[in-house]
Amino acid sequence: MQRIKIQYLNAVNLKVLIANDWTKESLANTNSIEKDIVNLFDKTIVFDFTDCLTLDSAGAVEILRIKNQLTKDRCSVTCVNLQEDHAKLLSFYEKNFHDKPELPPKKYISIEGIGKWIIDGFKGSGDFLSFVGEMLFALLKLIISPWNFRFTAFIKHVDTSAIQAIGIITILSFLIGLVVAYQSAGYLTKIGADIFIVDISVMSVFRELSPIITAILIAARSASSFTAEIGTMKITEEIDAMRTMGLDPFVFLVIPRVAAIIISMPFLVFVADIAGMAGAYLVSHFQLGISLNDFIDRMYLEISVNELYVGLGKSPIYGAIIGIIGCYRGFQATGSTHSIGKLTTKSVVSALFWVIICDAIIAVALTKLGI
Amino acid sequence: MTKVINVENIITKFGNTLIHDDLSFSIHKGEIFGILGGSGAGKSTLLRQLIMLQKFQSGNIEVLGESLRGISHKSAHKLRQKWAVLFQFGALYSSLTVLENICLPLLEYTELPKGLIENMAMTKLSMVGLSSESAYLYPSELSGGMKKRVGLARALALDPELLFLDEPTSGLDPSSAEAFDKLIVELRDMLGFSVIIVTHDLDTIKSALDRFIVLQNKKICFDGNYETAINSDLTFLKEFLKAN
Ligand SMILES: Nc1ncnc2c1ncn2[C@@H]1O[C@H](COP(=O)(O)OP(=O)(O)O)[C@@H](O)[C@H]1O
Ligand SMILES: [Mg+2]
Fold first, then answer.
1. How far is B202 from chain A (nearest CA, A)?
2. 3-state percent helix, strand, coil for chain B, nearest multiple of 5
3. Which pTM value belongs to this model?
């Protein structure tokens, strides 16, 4: 069905018949701004609506677009023979007709961009340091007046962050212990050093694997939830409300969370150690026929208890990294709910990044110290 | 007058708690209709039932001639395109700009060319009284009143026959609230849709509503316009209209 018909009355005067339906449905998949009408310059044009049946907002705006284009091409346009409601609608839309404004300038990667990125990086670390500073200040206040410590919140976070994670940590550590032992078993039999399976698996589990597995799981569970919880509170202005009531969000939100993780980490790593050893023992027993007594004797004789202490000792540091980064990212939330998703991702990734960096530094330092 | 909504003997329960006990009313074409009542009276629940977000235990609701009881997926989908809802806080998509928010229903439900859609969106933005400078802002950069206006522009994108508003003026300052009420009336006069408003706002009740019902004690205790309400001898009603 034709919507537009052009009749030349003479060289400059022409009549455009607007006919049939001008709706979202009838205009679907058309070329916007009808082709035949765009190349008219310096004409006097009458839009005749006699045969126009229906008109909705899409139709009205389309007609206005055409009219607009013609006016730009120095034509004069008048509309005649409109039904009363169409006239009302058209003039209402005409009053409000607007083109899309210019896009604000896009940010390209440029020298300026690189500089900005670096400066933002510095600013970011500055923000982080001031966050840690504020936290230490809150801690100091708590040391002076320990009765302000939010014990209930602390217990709640120990429960959600640590106790509820025990199951998954046990299962994963058990499997990791099992896999490490299983992988080494083949080689060790080849060189007839079966019993070394105890040294290898126990050492790697105690020193490295348990703390790292635990840190990964806690980062995934708690860094993310800290960021999401605090971020939501930030957006809903709960944190501002706290501040105006003179309640320090660091005392109420940050310290209980960070403390809960720091204190729970060694216990979780210990659980992971036991589970990992159980896995290793299972393989030693069934694959290499080492009895429980032999396994335990070997551990007592050959493996220094330092292995255990190193693993347990570094875990609170990981806990601190995870807790602090989780809370810090939460405080960065601004404006929209959209930012929380991004920040949650960032918090888990950067928590793990710094845990592993820290692990490497500790490994080098301990080797130098000969521990 | 044609009825756009007809509600018959609605009973709503949450578990064992009765929320609505046998409500019946109807809404006419072109009307600005109010659902009033104290907090917890079940206004939002009723609104959610009208727009198929919530079930009712017995009775029937007819919207634009379609019965909502046992409605097929297909007709439900069609019906949803004929109405629009403005939620209390605008419910704008926070990852999209103002312009993209308004374009979204048009891009999803029509096959119109992009340029036309953008022009339509800009026109609707201007209709709700916002300047074109706000087109590229994100919802987090808007004030509460602006969010509601953008929400309204998005609601108007598909030329709805019915417009549902849940407490549109709550959280706005009196002059923005008044302007918003005026805008609704003006748009209704121009575009001829019917409006269903849940509200407490006395100014809205006075200046915008053609007719309203008042929910109290799980029932409809009044159905009529402001004049009748003020002159009626229901003391509760007078108190309600004064207290709010
Ligand atoms: N999903 C739900 N489950 C149980 N009770 C609900 C639910 N939604 C609302 N209610 C109850 O129904 C009543 C009416 O709620 P609502 O319709 O939100 O009231 P209002 O009139 O303030 O909008 C309230 O008492 C509320 O507690
Ligand atoms: Mg409500």
1. 28
2. 45, 25, 30
3. 0.70
